[in-house]
Amino acid sequence: MSSPSRKRGSPSSRRSRSAAVEFFRGLVLGQYVPVDSAIHRLDPRTKILATLLLLTVMFGVREFAGLAILTLLLVAVVLAARIAPAYLLRGLRPLFWLLVFAVVLQVFFGEAGGHPMFRWGPVVVTRENLAQAAFYGWRLLLLVLSTTVMTLVTSPMEFTDGLERLLRPFQRVGVPAHDLAMMMTIALRFIPTLLEEAEKIMKAQMARGAEFTRGSLPARARALIPLLVPLFVGAFRRADALAIAMEARCYRGGENRTRMHMLRFGPQDLVAVTVVAAAAAFALIPPAAWRGH
What we know:
Elements: H1 4-8, H2 11-25, H3 44-60, H4 64-80, H5 85-90, H6 96-109, E1 116-120, E2 123-126, H7 127-152, H8 156-167, H9 177-207, H10 217-223, H11 225-248, H12 267-284, H13 287-290
Membrane topology: Multi-pass membrane protein
Subcellular location: Membrane
Transmembrane segments: 64-89, 95-112, 133-153, 270-290
């Protein structure tokens, strides 16, 4: 009989550990890819407004044809931004089970009625539920991709400046535009930092014999509990260090702040907004209206 130490060092154990670490390493949400492309050179306000418009339209689309139009637009943006599709799709791997969970819920617990395809005990899977599951899964995928692409093509400073300029009209009613923009930027950019911290903690715990990918689902969830405490402690420590660094540099928010690069809308921004608005309008039109019925 092999010893426990040998079992922990077996190839299958190493593969499971590698898979657990790759879960955190694969996420790309919140990261920025510095590439010289037409999308990167757009005004950050254009990218933020276009993303918000797409997210809003995605919730209003009711047909597969509309999602197909938005998918083609997103593919064109990714190609124009010179982002490797493999890199972007790799960032979706950690969210795969979330998509599967959402689709399975819709398949088995969707609306009653319709044309049954097969029965599993008291659960009846219908053709309509399968179609709705595919639709909602596709839409969730587009929601994640849209926000991910926006962070990949917008630097933290550009995002802060663009969001602050968009929120500036609300300062008249007491909305702290700069503070809100800074908080959202820090929260968004903390995602890669927290994932890196989680990867380090997971490696340290696995070196001490912790298992994150074995056993039942409740057992795996319980195995993650020891990961949360040091992760939150590290997050608070990093936030405190960031606050001290900003205070040491006399940070006073947007008060009397100057900028090296002034934001200006150009012809390329007008073209981008027009293309996104046209695609959004076509996505909302039902296919029956295209055929004139």
